[in-house]
Amino acid sequence: MPTINKIAPHIHKEITSDSSFDTDNYEDESHNWQELLESSGIQDKIEGYAQMQREGSDINLSTFAQMKVYPFFQQFENWLFPFDTAHESLKELFATMSGPSTGSGTDIKEPNIEEPNSTNGLEKLLSLTHFLCDSDKYSFCFNLQMIPSDYRKSMVEQIKMGDEQIKDIEKPSSEVISNLYLQDLYRFYTLSRSREFFTNPFLLDMNVHETSFFRFLNPEGKFIQQLADFFFAKEQYSNALTAYLKCKEQGASNDHLYRKLGYCLQKNEQYAQAIAYYEKAELLENADVWTFRKLAYCHRMLKEYDKALSYYEQIDTLKPNDLNVIFNIGVCYAELGDYKKALNAFYKIEFLQSDMSKSIYYHLYMAHCLWATDDKKAALEHYALFPHDQLAEQLENACITLSDRDKVYVVDYLRYS
After folding, report:
1. What's the burial of 102, exposed, middle or buried (CB within 10 Å: 0-12/13-18/19+)?
2. pTM surpassing 0.85?
3. Which of 324, 330, 328 is nearest to 344 (CA)?
4. What average pLDDT does the chain have?
C-alpha cells in the first residue's frame, strides 16, 4: 500500500493526460501507467501475496485481529467453536437476510445448488470458502451486523447473482481444513485474553523431524529432504541444518546438499564449519562463483583476509567488474596492510561508477588508505562522507594504526569544519 500511494499521483497524471485519443501514438502516450506499475514492483508483490495464500500462509491475521473484541470471544471455548450459521449469536444476522438459515457445521455439507433460493447466498459462500478459518468467519459476521441492513441486503443480492460461481467452488482438501484449524489455534494462543493460562505451542521449536511421531510417519526417511528444503525456504536455518544433517546421515551426498549445509552454518555464524562444507561442494563442482563468494565471506568473518582475497580474485576473473567484489578485494588488501593495492581497487570502482555518494563504507576504507599513505587532506574529504556519529567508533577499529591524537584530530576537524 505505501508503494501504491507513492506512485498514485503519477498514474493519475498519466490517465488524465491531455493526449489526443485519435493520434497514432495514443496507446504509447496514454498507457505508460501500466509500465509504471510493472516497474514499481507492485505486480511482483501481488504475485508474492497470492503465492503466500496458495502455500497456506496466514495472510488474514492482521485484518481480523482487530475484530476479536466482540462478546462472543470473551468465552475462551468460542475461539475454537466450529462455524455454524445457526449459532445463537448469528441468528439475528441471518434472520434479517433473505431465506431461512439452514446452518452449516464443520462437515461442510454440500449446498442444495438445485434450489438456489432456498439457502442464503452468504451462508453458502461462508460454508464453502477456503481462505477464512472458523474464528475469522465469526468475526466477519459480527462485523457485518454493524452494517446497515439495506447495505447487507444489497451485498447478499450481489452474492446471489454470482451463484453460478459459488457452485464451482470445490470442497476443501484435508490439507486446507487442517491448515484453517491451525489458524484458529494460532488466533487463540496469540489474541485471546485466556492465552496466558496455556502453554503456547507456536513458541516451541518446530523441530518436527526430531519427534517420534515424524519417525513413525516417515520410517524410510523419504520426506526429510522436503522438510529440510521447507525450513531452508522459510529461513529457519537451525532447523534446516539438523534436517540436512539427517539427509547426510542417510547417505545423501552432492554439491547442492553441501552448499545448503554450509549456508545454514554460515547463517548460524559457524564460519569454520561452513567453510568445510563449501570446500566439499567446490571439489564436486569447480569454478562456482556462488560458492567462492560464500567461502570468501566466511574467511573474511574469521579475519583470514589472505584466504578471502584469493577467492575474491578468482571471482573477479570469472565475473569481472563486479563492484562488490572489487570493493572486498580493496578491503582485504587494506586489512593486510597493502594500502596502495587497496587504493588501486577503490580507484577502479570510481572509474566504473562515478557516483559513490551513498557508498559510505567505500569512503571509510578509502579514507583509511589515504591516511596511511599520508594523503591526509584527501582522507579527510572521504571521512567527511561517513556518518559523523559513527566515525569515532570506526576509527577505534580501523584497519590502519591511528594514534589517539589522530583520532581526536579527525573527529574534531569534521565536527567544527
Report:
1. middle
2. no
3. 330
4. 82
Residue 247: what residue type? Answer: C
Helix, strand or coil, per DSSP, at residue 179: helix
The set of cell numbers assigned to 307 is 584466504
Asked if the model's pLDDT at residue 55 lies above 90, the reply is: no
The candidate with the shortest Cα–Cα distance to 281, out of 316, 256, 264, is: 256
Amino acid type, 387:
P
Q: What are phi and psi for residue 83, nearest 5 degrees?
A: -70, 130
Task: Quickly tell me which residue has 518446530 as its cell.
Answer: 206
Strands in 63-192 per DSSP E:
none
CA distance 320 to 315: 7
Alpha-carbon distance 197 to 214, whole Å?
28
Q: What is the DSSP string of 188-242?
A: HHHH-GGGGGS--GGGS---GGGSHHHHHH-TT-TTHHHHHHHHHHTT-HHHHHH
Single-letter code of the amino acid located at 282: E
Question: What average pLDDT does range 327-335 have in this prediction?
Answer: 95
Ranked by mean pLDDT, the top range of 97-106, 168-177, 318-327 is: 318-327
Q: How far apart are CA 25 and CA 184, in angstroms?
A: 54
- One-letter amino acid of 275: I
Q: Is 84 left (phi over 0), alpha (psi -120 to 50) or beta?
A: beta
How far apart CA 180 and CA 164 sit, in angstroms, is 25
387, three cell numbers? 556518518
CA dist 27 and 35 (Å) reads 12
Distance CA 128, CA 122 (A): 10
Residue 95 has pLDDT above 50, yes or no: yes
Given a contact cutoff of 8 angstroms between Cβ atoms, the answer to whether 387 and 379 are in contact is: no
Residue 20 has pLDDT above 60, yes or no: no
Given a cut of 50, whether residue 327 has pLDDT beyond it is yes
Whether 106 and 127 have beta carbons less than 8 Å apart is answered as no
165-188: per-residue pLDDT in tens? 556 667 778 888 888 999 999 999
- For residue 104, what pLDDT is reported? 45
pLDDT category, 364, cuts 50, 70, 90? very high
Q: What share of the chain is helix, strand, coil (3-state, %, to 5)?
A: 70, 0, 30
Please state, as a whole number, how many other Cβ atoms lie within 10 Å of the Cβ of residue 410: 22
User: Residue 157 pLDDT > 90, yes or no?
Assistant: no
